[in-house]
Amino acid sequence: MEMPTQTVLVTGATGFIGSHLLPALHQANWQTAVALRCAARQPCKMPAQSVIVGDIGERTDWQAALAGVSTVIHLAARAHQIQDNSSNPEKDFWQVNTQGTANLVKQCLAAGVQHFIFLSSIGAMATLSSQVLNEDSPCHPDTPYGRSKFKAEQALIDLAQDSSMAWTILRPTLVYGPGNPGNMARLMKLINTGLPLPLGSIQNRRSLLYVGNLVDIILRTLIHPNAQNQIFLCSDGQDLSTSALIQKIAHCRHQPCRLIALPSAWLRLGGKLGDTVQQILGRPLSLNSETLDRLLGSLWIDNSKLRSRLDWSPPYSLEAGLRHTFHGTGQIA
Fold this sequence. Notes:
Helix content is 40%, strand content 13%. The chain is an alpha/beta fold.
């Protein structure tokens, strides 16, 4: 598995995952280029050629960015937000995540790109599942974000069919690490208040993925022939309940863990009350049914295909990932 000398183009390089991936590519001696929306978002410090492409959509011109590129790692996307203020999120996700990806794939084919690595999401399959998911499980995306990612996957596979360009689709579970946004960041800040949390009775099952493990997976797909034309579900492989995760985070931060065991029905009632207040105020709240579903529900995967086909094992355990998250750069205070 020799490393090619051609350039790897990274989209979304200034985002959470991209900011961890670029240093790893540099350390592994990959020649890297980055596609940026604007000059003000330069990722800096890493020696990488940068090309300004503007907003991502069906009309984005990728020609200059793809010159001399052998592999594209497509991280850029409109991210899922619990408090989404868009008047038409379905349309916004479709334009960026689906049409934007399809447009990039078409131009990659025209430019002779050899390998397209697409960072999708477990949301392309589901946001909740009482059964373990694997690559053969049916996809029933139930959010605008998840649907846009699933349709982007389909566009990639359909467009690359009968071409010489290989593809790899990665579906990570919830990604955490230093500087992480989203659900994990909200949970961390909630724990940091030191207030008793009424989540002690939760016995769900969730899969997580440390950003360092995801970066290692991406690097693996760059060189392993078994990664071509495959979909992989990605996680640390250590599944746990929300209450157990809270205990581990509190232990890592050397904080007391105050959990109160309230019935799930009471918690869901609180979420419905939050929904009602949202409607009255006309703006989203942190406590609503969607937030409660993610805290109470299960979403866990079997990553055995990733392990076996790519000879991969996570370099970081869950405990090590949490230590890096809180005691490395980007610590959430």
